[in-house]
Design brief:
Vanadium-containing Chloroperoxidase, domain 2; 2 domains; V-haloperoxidase; about 0% strand; PAP2/HPO_sf; single chain; mainly alpha; PAP2/HPO; about 525 residues; PA-phosphatase; elongated
Length: about 525
């Protein structure tokens, strides 16, 4: 087959629409109150991710006869005497689980910021600036690698915050019963728990989450703080925590977050965009190796997305393993394997059936969405609700999933920019796609890599559904072939690479003490 280079662009109108400001639209779906089948009271002995050698300070609780504690109890009674319908809705919303709700909120923030900026008048593109997050374009641009990193840091910090909280909860000097246990006049407006209430586990989650989110989404500070205040009010109104329970937990969560903040600030993600010299070198190196270099098909050409993301420090894998896991080169142009794959893409382009269209639409995860890692968070949350897990197990399981997704992003982007391989639409004119063409090299598929990692972790966590999860991952990867933006080899190799990355999370899960 004779191939031809095609230079095309996305429609400017569509790009401009995607660059407009996007508000947060919370789902607020109806979910049952969290009623863990197992409280995981030994979670204080589980292995934390970053804080195993850290020392934290938590004030001792005051005696139940102290004026401050009596005032705390009276505050709860005052709330419960005159609950408004709005306050009852707050209780209902947050009772589904702190980790669950914050994961939903994080997905909404990612979706809000997943908007590539429109070009300047001179044909260049502006970059989000953390130092000035409210200027256009809003910081950050939550593309898939950035989103994977955000999900990982938030989930991992939540897990460590809860492990550290449980160490204090079951320390004899700190153990305190919930207000609805200590005082018969305090109602339990959520399912009762046998967990000690000091320090508050919800507060630890909120404290850690807010600190991480403010780093990741600084322009949303007011919104994040509003959600923290809302969750605090829920714990007081429901009779589950006193104000001092909350304050102790929130302080501990913030201390844990500081450990993760230090890592995030030094993980080299801030330099991932590179510069023109970096972009030009990728093209020069590809030509020197006798390969057709990838080029942006947008007009004006958009800089490649995060070409230096491979330099980000992985969170589970040793840094050296990023290269070790890198797959072999894609099929050489003109080879029989390459021609077979290209013929298939062209055939898909000419004959889209309805099932393929459905699959492409379901797994599109493009601009303005939660991204592929967020899609797998949605799938995980829907599954986890069925199992009645404790907050700490929710956090641990989401941390395993999202750390695998972050490392999958690093490995995938390393492969993409090492080979700098063009997409089918660049090589042959007239290919009709069912989805937008991402602005980065073809090999390997990001969707397939994220999905292979996610399915591997979810299959470990919910083994009875392992086969189903892997089938979903395969479908996600193949959706990119059906859409005309990837070769089959991009998808199959991406899936296999994602499985390898997911295994690092599984191996950690097998040794973290939670099983």
């Amino acid at each position: 087959m004779k191939t031809r280079i095609l230079y095309t662009s996305l429609m400017a109108v569509a790009l401009f629409a995607s660059s407009c400001k996007k508000d947060i639209t919370e789902r607020n779906q109806e979910l049952p109150a969290l009623t863990p089948a197992n409280p995981d009271s030994t979670a204080g002995s589980w292995t934390p991710i970053l804080t195993g050698s850290s020392t934290f300070t938590v004030a001792l609780p005051e005696a139940k006869t102290s004026p401050n504690y009596v005032a705390d109890i009276n505050e709860i009674k005052s709330y419960q005497k005159n609950l408004t319908s709005e306050q009852k809705e707050i209780i209902k919303y947050w009772s589904a689980g702190s980790v669950l709700r914050w994961n939903e909120i994080l997905r909404e923030l990612v979706s809000k910021h997943n908007l590539p900026p429109y070009q300047n008048d001179d044909g260049t593109y502006p970059f989000p600036n953390a130092a000035n997050p409210l200027a256009y374009p809003l910081f950050p641009f939550s593309n898939p690698p950035y989103a994977a990193r955000a999900y990982a840091y938030v989930s991992a910090a939540q897990y460590d915050a809860l492990v550290q909280t449980f160490k204090y909860k079951y320390n004899a000097a700190y153990r305190r019963k919930a207000p609805y246990v200590d005082d018969a006049n305090v109602q339990a407006l959520i399912p009762r728990s046998a967990l000690p209430s000091y320090p508050s586990e919800n507060a630890a989650v909120a404290g850690a989450t807010a600190q991480m989110m403010i780093l990741l989404f600084p322009g949303d500070l007011d919104f994040i703080q509003k959600k923290v205040a809302e969750e605090k009010l829920y714990r007081l109104m429901s009779g589950a925590n006193t104000r001092s329970d909350w304050d102790a937990g929130e302080s501990l969560g913030k201390q844990v977050a500081n450990v993760f903040l230090a890592r995030a600030r030094a993980d080299r993600a801030g330099a991932a965009a590179g510069n023109k010299d970096v972009w030009d070198k990728f093209e020069t190196d590809a030509k020197a190796a006798g390969r057709t270099p990838w080029i942006s098909l947008e007009l004006p050409r958009r800089p490649p997305m995060l070409p230096l993301f491979p330099n980000v420090n992985p969170i589970l894998m040793p840094a050296a393993d990023v290269v070790a896991v890198r797959p072999a080169a894609p099929f050489k142009e003109g080879s029989a394997e390459y021609e077979k794959d290209m013929t298939e893409v062209m055939a898909m382009s000419d004959n889209h059936d309805r099932e393929h269209e459905r699959i492409v639409a379901f797994w599109a995860d493009g601009v303005g969405t939660v991204t592929p890692p967020g899609h797998w968070n949605s799938i995980a949350a829907e599954e986890f609700v069925k199992h009645n897990w404790s907050e700490v197990r929710w956090a641990r399981n989401l941390a395993l999933l999202n750390m695998a997704e972050m490392d999958a992003a690093i490995v995938c982007w390393d492969t993409k920019y090492f080979y700098f391989n063009p997409r089918p639409t660049q090589m042959v004119a007239g290919i009709k796609t069912l989805t937008g063409i991402p602005n980065f090299p073809s090999y390997i598929s990001g969707h397939a890599t994220f999905s292979g990692a996610a399915a591997t972790v979810l299959g470990y966590l919910v083994p009875e559904r392992a086969t189903e999860f892997m089938a979903m991952a395969n479908e996600a990867g193949m959706s990119r072939l059906y859409g005309g933006i990837h070769y089959r080899n991009d998808c199959t190799v991406g899936l296999a690479t994602g499985v390898k990355v997911g295994t690092y999370a599984v191996n950690r899960g097998k040794t973290d003490g939670a099983n």
